[in-house]
Amino acid sequence: MTTETGPQAPEQRNDELSRDLERVGANRDRDAFARLFRHFAPLVKAFALGGSPLAASHAEELVQEVMIKVWQKSPGFDPRKASASTWVYAIARNSRTDMYRRLQKFDTPLNAEDIWPDTGSVELFSSVQMHRDAARVRKMLGELPHEQVQVLTKIYMEGKSQSEAAADLDLPLGTVKSRVRLALNKLQLLVEEA
User: Fold this and answer.
1) Pairing, β 2-3 against β 6-7
2) Has residue 130 got a pLDDT over 70?
3) pLDDT confidence band for 153 (50 / 70 / 90)
4) Is 96 buried (19+), middle (13-18) or exposed (0-12) by CB count in 10 A?
5) Residue 169 near residue 175 (C-beta atoms within 8 A)
6) Domains of the chain, first to last
7) What is the pLDDT of residues 4-49, one digit of tens each?
8) CB atoms < 10 A from the CB of 81, how many?
9) 97 burial type by CB count under 10 A (0-12 exposed, 13-18 middle, 19+ buried)
């Protein structure tokens, strides 16, 4: 904005709060800061609680944080650019956003997925599950007759066909097939019981 006499300076805020804020910035005036604190602390607390998930304890913490920043940043306050209320409100808004982000980072509810370590793959889960399954199978195999375990070992552990197992064990093919069928039936019953 210009006038006939030249550019017009922005209007200087002349309210008491702005003057107190200038005193704090220029002289570290404790009385002026006490007046600012008495005025703004309840407003900042109400602002913290209004429309925000912050708890009352966090609101008190926000008041302290904002007022410390007011004390620290007061030398940068320019009453030609903003009133004390606008300036403090901007600090409060930014501090509340920062606090909310910090709380989101650390105050999240615990989920079951948080307890099980995420390794980036299912290898750990698969390894544990395979170990448990192997232990169960060993226990169940221990309840089968030795002859049936022998046949199952040849076929399922060594990957041989029934004919190859019959040749290795020097048994007729029908006997091998019979032992496999009996062993699998018994294992099925054991699994159903477990």
Assistant:
1) antiparallel
2) yes
3) confident
4) buried
5) no
6) 2-106 (1.10.1740.10), 137-193 (1.10.10.10)
7) 444 433 445 558 889 999 999 999 999 999 999 999 998 888 877 7
8) 10
9) exposed
Both tokens of 159, joined, read 């990957």
Q: Which of 66, 64, 79, 61 is nearest to 25 (CA)?
A: 79
Q: Is the pTM of this model over 0.85?
A: no
Q: Is the pLDDT of residue 112 over 80?
A: no
**What is the 3-state secondary structure of the chain?**
CEECCEECCCCCCCCHHHHHHHHHHHHCCHHHHHHHHHHHHHHHHHHHHCCCCCCHHHHHHHHHHHHHHHHHHHHHCCCCCCCHHHHHHHHHHHHHHHHHHHHHHHCCCCCHHHHCCCCCCCHHHHHHHHHHHHHHHHHHHCCCCHHHHHHHHHHHHCCCCHHHHHHHHCCCHHHHHHHHHHHHHHHHHHHHHC
Structure token digits, residue 99 = 């606090």
Give CA–CA dist 122/112, Å, rounded: 15
Contacts of residue 117, Cβ cutoff 8 Å, sequence gap at least 6: 124
At 34, list the tokens. Answer: 């006490």
Q: What average pLDDT does this structure show over 111-124?
A: 50
